[in-house]
Amino acid sequence: MLQGDQVVEEFDQDDLDDDESFFQDIDMLQSQGINAADLKKLKQAGICTVKGVQMTTRKRLCTIKGISEAKMEKIKEACAKLEEGGFCTALEFADKRKAVFKLSTGSSELDKLVGGGIESMSITEVFGEFRSGKTQLSHTLCVSTQMPGSNGYAGGKVIFLDTENTFRPDRLRDIADRFGLDQSAVLDNVLYARAYTSEHQFELLDFVAAKFHEEPGVFKLLVVDSIMALFRVDFSGRGELADRQQKLAQMLSRLQKISEEFNVAVFITNQMTADPGATMSFQADPKKPVGGHILAHASTTRIALRKGRGELRIAKIYDSPNMPENEATFAITAGGIADGKE
Ligand code: ATP
Ligand code: MG
After folding, report:
1. Which end of the chain is more exposed for a tag (fewer CB within 10 A), N or C?
2. What does pTM read for this prediction?
3. Angle at 127 between CA 141 and CA 161, to 5 degrees
């Protein structure tokens, strides 16, 4: 019995060490004279780490209930003290980047195309017409993320935000079988939420941040399938376009910050303008993803999907500054995304 306890304690200590090397809990600000009640208010607003405070503007901090301007300044000051100015050498930065991991898509060809897999600390976007495999890829990642990978990646949990009501746990079961994982265990490791409006989608990110903070290092992937669907419903016409793009920019900025703050991969799917005339689009080319420049700049990696013969699909890197314009062919199978046989 005693031995068992000791083992548990050791595990906890390991978790803490890992955790500390990656982010600083906001409770550390108590040592700088910030009281626990104020820290609780920040946490309720989805700000759980020192980095999280630094990623939030003064203006937004002041909108949190109970945080006055004076308090806000004190909190900002306390964070600055802990972070020592925020500079590090390139060598130290390279060391931090060692924490970046890559998640397999289920197809080794597709993995190769994106430089080894879906990368943490950044946003990867796939877009393509209906049935091009965006949702199937999202499902496959929910399972492959749980598989230990090469270079020390231990596997982890997933949060799935569904805006189109196309998430199917039964698909995860089939994919789990293919990877040789226990079905229930796989489903238990995927936290699911359905978003009903673009506002709701944004609010859910507070919960996501809180969850990532509550179980540090446990979650490795956040899926949003799809990023634009609700925005396209909630904002219509040219008159609301500017407003839509502003809200979209805020959402994407939050996603990017979450990916860096908690070292997770963010995977988003996107639609294309099927009929440029109907969507008041200024894009002449109907093969473009929606979301405009805002989305183009937010995604680190953009992948265009198109249909091939039968269950085959072709992926192409879209507009990448540092990757060759290659293509990869993969297949949608009962066990999820896999290599295609040509
Ligand atoms: P949308 O834009 O409508 O959301 P999508 O890009 O998300 O489309 P998916 O739902 O990922 O498209 O892909 C649908 C394709 O996946 C279909 O061609 C379907 O045949 C295939 N598919 C779905 N389930 C299975 C399965 N169990 N086994 C094999 N193929 C499947
Ligand atoms: Mg879909």
Report:
1. N
2. 0.86
3. 50
